[in-house]
Amino acid sequence: MQNDILFDNIYIGHSIEDAQKFADETFGLKHPIEEALEAAEKPKVDDSKPPKSPSDLVFMDDPAHYIKEKLDLFFTIAQRDPIQAIKFVPEAAGGIAAVVVTLIAVIVGLVSMGGSTPPPKVKKVT
Q1: pLDDT tens column, 14-44
Q2: How far apart are alpha carbons 64 and 110 in whole angstroms?
Q3: Is 0.70 topped by the overall pTM?
Q4: 68 and 80 in contact (C-beta within 8 Å)?
Q5: 92 CB burial (10 A radius; 0-12, 13-18, 19+)
Q6: How far from chain centre, in Å, is Cα 19?
Q7: Between the ranges 54-58, 105-109, 115-119, where is the mean pLDDT highest?
Q8: Rounded average pLDDT over 46-56
Q9: What is the distance, to the nearest Å, from the Cα of residue 122 to the centroid of all Cα atoms in its chain?
Q10: In angstroms, rounded to a whole number, what is the distance separating the alpha carbons of residues 117 and 98?
Q11: Rounded mean pLDDT, 80-107
Q12: Cβ–Cβ contacts within 10 Å for residue 21, how many?
């Protein structure tokens, strides 16, 4: 059971006509009033808000679009002043730095795994 669940208008019997009459006298009268009260209690949606601008973009709304917009803003500012771009959009700068460091680590790892020389052959002395 959950809170705020009430049972009323219960009919126990065999007659469909009696059940329908009971429903019309009880449920049929109360249900529209209960729906109107429930609709009045719901918070109203504010349609007067302007549409979202790119600065209002939230990652969870559309992650790909969010990242694209942030990188576009970063590169646009970086063309004029890279330091200002890092200060203004640090998440883009951090993301780019993380990708570069990861690529360097992968390359270094692959190069260091490179073929090692086989051990020298030992000559048997007889």
Answers
A1: 999 999 998 888 888 888 888 888 888 888 7
A2: 30
A3: no
A4: no
A5: buried
A6: 48
A7: 105-109
A8: 57
A9: 63
A10: 34
A11: 92
A12: 13
CA atoms within 13 A on the CB side of 89: 22
Place of tokens 């680590």: 105
- Domain range summary for the chain, segments of one domain joined by +: 1-43, 54-109
Token digits of residue 8: 């009323």
Total length of the chain:
126
DSSP per-residue letters across 51-94: PPPGGG--TTT-HHHHHHHHHHHHHHHHHH-HHHHHHH-HHHHH
> Which whole number is the average pLDDT over 84-107?
93
